[in-house]
Write the structure tokens for this entry.
Amino acid sequence: RGIAAGVRTMFMNAGMVLSIAISMAIISSSISLSAMQALFVHSHVSTRGMASAQFIRGLRTAFTISFVFSLIAAFMSYLRGPAPKWEKQAEG
């Protein structure tokens, strides 16, 4: 239980880190360089401006890609079949 739980937790953490990195790369690729610089130096960025529309478009793209990956993972899990039913061995 100890080693397996540690490995499982490591893979879960690595998956979360990778998903955040990929999502931020997708979102930031949709925002123009000038708008991104304005966001990072805390200068005024209008909510009616192009930066928010670009950000929302990138966010939708990131969610769409995440949704597709989730569907693929669910389908592969379905192909695995039902969980095996283990029978207890009689102790003798």
The mean pLDDT is 84. Residues 40 and 52 are 14 Å apart (CA to CA). Residues 2-76 form one domain.
